[in-house]
Design goal:
This protein has 645 residues and is mainly α. The chain contains 26 helices and five strands. It has a five-stranded mixed β-sheet, with helices on one face. The chain starts with a helix and ends with a strand.
Amino acid sequence: MKVSGVFIVFIFLVIIINPVFGGVKDSLDQKLSAKADTSKVKVLSDLCWEYRFISADSAIIFGEMALTLAEDLKFPKGIAQAFNDLGIIYMDKANYRKATKYFGEAMKLRGQLNDLPGQASLYNKLGIIDQKQGRLKEALQNQIAALKIYEQLGQDKWIGYSLNNIAIIHQNLGNLEKSLEYHKKGLEYRVKMGDEAGEANSLSNMANVYAKMYDTTRAIAYYEKALAISRKLKNEEYISAILSNMGNIYMAKKEFKKALTFYSESLEIRERLGDNKGISSTLSRMGSLYTEIGRYQDAAMALNRALEISKKISVIEEELSALLGLAKLKALTNQTDSAIILMKLYIATNDSVYSERIKQQILDVQSQYETDKLEQDLELVKQEKQFTEIKLIQRKTQLWLLVFIIISMTGAGIFLFYRHQQRQKAAADAEKIRQQEARMNAVFQGQEEERRRIAKELHDGVGQTLSALKLNYQTLSFKATSRDLVQDLKRLQTMLDSASAEVRTISHQMMPKELEQFGLVPAIENMLKMNFENAPLQYHFEHSGFEERLGVPIELALFRVLQELISNVIKHSQATFLNVQLLKLKTHVVLNVSDNGVGFDVDATEKNGIGLLNIASRIDAIKGHLNYESAPGTGTSVTIRTPIA
C-alpha cells in the first residue's frame, strides 16, 4: 500500500533528524505507533514547516509525504495544508512557478471548504510572490483581497499583518510616505491587540523605510525599539534580522566596527537557530565588510561559506549575493581571471532565475478598498489648485528650460573642445607608441638576424673545421704505434668531441632548428630536455590547443623569454621542480612558468634586473601582458598573456 511505503521513509527521516528535533521525537514516536490517520498528516506538515530553515530538500520530502497520505485518506483540509506548505518551501527556493501552482491548488480546496482565513493567507503569499517578481500591481491587488477578508472577519491581528504587507509594496513602488502611513495604521492595530511580536515587526519595517529615505537617525531609533521588544520576547529570529539590518545601516555609514559587532551577534544567533538562509545572508554582508576594510582572507572565508550554504539550501538570492561579493574580492586582489569566471557564473545564475519573469511598467494602483478616499483626495487637490499657481508653474518651467538650454549648449561646446584636444593627444601618443614598437621590433629583428649569422658561422665554419680535424685525427690514430702516442691521441679525441658538442649546442641555442621547422611546442620540449635531462631538477611541460602554428614574432618572443626564465631558474632559484604550461585560447596565448625555489623580491628585482627588463621588452613588442608572483622563500610564478595576431 502507498501509505506504508511513505511511512518507512518517514521513520527513516525521523531517525536522521533526531539530533535537530530531539525535543519532539517522543511525541512523534507515539503517533507513529498509531494507524495512518489525519493526525499523522499534521505531524508531517509540522515537520515540513520546522525543517524549512534547515534543509529545503528535506522539508519538501516531508511535505510530499503529508500530501500523499492526505490524498490516500481523502482528507481535503490536509491536502490543502500540504499544498500550502510546499508552496512556501518553493517560494523560499525562488521557484515561483511551482510555488504559484501549489498555492493555486490550495486556494481551490480552501474555496470549496469555505475556509476564508485560509484564502486570505494564500492571497498574502501570492502577493509576496508577485512582489518578488516585480509585479507590484498584482501584489497590491492580492494583499487588498486578503485585507478585505480579514476586515469582513474582524480579525484585527491579520488586518495589521495585511496593512504591513501593503506598506512594503508601497515602499517598493517608491511611495515612501504612503508606506509609512500604512505602517502606522498597521502598528495601531498591533498595539491595540497587544501583539508585541507584530509591533516589533512594524517598527523594524518602519526603520527600513527611514533607511530608504536616508534618515539613518530615525532608522536606528526604530530598530532599537524593535530590538528591545524582540529581546523581551526572546524572539531570536526577529533579533537576528534586526541586528543584521542595523549592521547594514552602520555599514552604509562606513562605521565598520559597529557594523561588524551587529553582524557577528546576528550570525551567532542564526548559527544557534540553524537558520541556514539567515547564516548565508549574514556571511555575505560580513564578507563585503571585510572586503571594504582590506581583510581579504576573512572576506574570502565568509563569502565562500555563504556560497556553499546558499547552494546547499537552494536559495538563489543569497547565492547571487555571495557570487557578486567574491567577484569584487577577486577583482580587488588582482585575480582578474577568477573575477571574470565568477561574474560569468553570477550572470548565468541570475539569467536562469529571471529569464521567465515578465518585465512590465509599474502603474499607479488605485485599489477598490481605497476608492472613495482616493477620489475625495483627488477632488480636494483639484479645488485647491488655482489658475495663478498654474501660470506661475508654467513661467518657472519656461525659465528653467531656457537656463537648461544655455547650460547644455555651453557644456556641449566645452565637451567638444575637450574631446578634440583629447583626440589629438591620443593620436600623438599612439604615433609615439607605434614608433617605439617599430624601433623595438627592429632591434629584436636585428638580434635574431645576428644570431642566425653567428649560428651559421659556427656550424659551417668552426663546426666544419672541427670535423676536418677529427677526420685527420682518426687517420693519424691508425698509424700510431707508440703506446704513449695512442694515449695522447685519445685525449685529443675527447677534446675534439667536447668542442664539437659545445659548438653544436651554442649553434642550436642561437637558432634552434625545431623552432624554424616544427614550431614552438617541439622547440620548448627540446630546450627542456637539453637543460634538464641529466639534471637533479625535475620538470613538467603541459600544452594545449596548438593544432596550428602561431605567427613567427610571437613564437620567437615566447621562446626567447622562456630561455631567459629557464636560465634564471638554473642560476638563481635553487628549485627542485619546474612546471611549464603553454595554452592556446581563442584570442590569446598563455605561458606560465612556476618553480618551487627560493623566490625573490619582485619590486626590487624588476627595477634592477637586466634579464627581467629584456623579458618585459620582448613581451611589450608583441603587445603581451607579463605578471610575476614571488616573494623570498615562496617560489616563483611567471604568467604571460599575449594576443594572437
